[in-house]
Amino acid sequence: MTTFSIKGLQVDRASIPVIRGIDVEAKGGEISVLLGSNGAGKTTFLESLSGIIPARAGSIGLDGTELTKLRAGARAKAGLSHVEQGRTVFSEMTTEENLKVALHPDADLKEAYDLFPELLQRRDVKAGMLSGGEQQMVVIARSIVNRPRVILIDEMSSGLAPVIVNRLMRAVRQLADDGMAVVLVEQFAALALAIGNRAYVLRRGQIVYDGGCEALARDPAHLHKLYLGAAAA
Fold first, then answer.
1. In terms of CB atoms within 10 Å, which of 18, 24, 125, 186 comes out highest?
2. Longest dimension (CA), the chain
3. pLDDT attached to residue 233
């Protein structure tokens, strides 16, 4: 079973500490949900994991392989995929061409179309002509055709209608059920907790809650206090 382990991670931006020594773990078959208010450091955290920005200290390990000093491309080859904010697609390329860009030599597009059958009928449509929800499906599907073991997903629901968000949440749950380790950063806490296994709440670059998603979902008042700064009991 895949184990993605982050220990003592510290990350700076412009010499200012943003992530202040945190431990997070994601396992194959599970969704680790990372919550926190705007400015808590969630995106910086994911960018440090995928190698977009360097960590100042700490370790990032995937099944015993140390990734901390590797460049982003090497981390991707090791099995790490990052779905960044913004639904970045190649707008002049078709849906299928967008998927083929990332296709693993030993894979085909069936996995992508099985996850999102909606894309099959849009395979020959230029990605720039797709709806926001369809573009997000393309981005997620493109990330899995490279056969990652860990997928980092940053605010995939931003700007989308609730019915589309629910559809995406089901797909992410399916990825975990198929054995992938998922780290999900999400603004809709209730929806993320409903599909997640383990929850972390990040405040000012530090973890103030580490526990089960179900327990936190049952106590929204506690979650609210954590966002405002009350440490977990």
1. 186
2. 53
3. 41
